[in-house]
Structures are given as C-alpha cells and as structure tokens.
Amino acid sequence: MKAVPVYFSLGTNQGDRRAQIEEALRRLDAAIGRPREALSSIIETPAWGFEGPDFLNCVVRYRTARRPETLLRICKRIERAMGRRETLEYDAEGRRIYHDRPIDIDILLYGDERIDLPDLQIPHPLMRQRDFIMRPLNEIFTQK
Known about the structure:
The chain has 144 residues and is α+β, with helices and mostly antiparallel strands. It has one domain (4-143): Alpha-Beta Plaits (2-Layer Sandwich). Helices cover 30% and strands 28% of the residues. The strands form three sheets. Strands 1, 2, 3, 4 and 7 form a five-stranded antiparallel sheet that branches. Helix 1 (17-32) packs across helix 2 (68-81). The longest helix has 16 residues, at 17-32. The radius of gyration is 15 Å and the shape is globular. The protein starts with a strand and ends with a helix.
C-alpha cells in the first residue's frame, strides 16, 4: 500500500500539558515508525463541550501506509498508556458528555479517504466545528 498523509489532533488539559503533548508525539513517532512531517503550533483553548481547565492542542502530519484501523488502535493504546480512561457517557438527549483528559488523539484525515465505521469516521465528523482543530490544521496546510 502507498503511504498517504495522515493528520492527527492532540489535546490535553491535565497535568503538565506541554509534557503530555511532547510524550504523545514521541510515542506516535515510535509507533508509526517514521518521523512526523509537520507539526502545528501548540495552542491553548477553552474546554469544548464541558466546563474544565484549558487545553493545549496541536495537529501533526505523518506519511504512512498503515491502515486507519491500525492507526486508531495505536492512538487508543497511547492514550491508555498515558492514563486516559475512556468513559463514554451521553446526556438525556443523546449528546456525548466530555471530560478532562491527560491526552486525546484523534485521526482527522487519512489521505483523501472517507471512512464511516462505528468507531472511526474520517474525515473527523466534528473537526470543522472545532476551532482548536481547524486553526492548527490550517497552519499545517499553509506550511506545505
């Protein structure tokens, strides 16, 4: 399979946030097996969808031939290893309830592919609604 550009968003609002981002990037580099191609600025933004401490967020681009499902497993493994506990909760109207987290890694784009699986949607379905994703993503797009 041909290597394609893959964009991930990273965010954290717990602990030493900058160190959390740096550790997640180090782990992604190792798991993907090649260095990242581009990294946005790390920005501070308010919590989205809940009341909580501010987040640090960034977007990173890799080029890889790994399948999206494999990349999702890598992201989840890194999140768990860094202390994230997945708690999917929904309110009475069926909206997801978000929580503080030591790290959050989402796959935003995988080449030009569209994927719609129960646990993986690419492009990320909410990215256009989230300034904390779009600002760093646009920064990388302009770096090309």
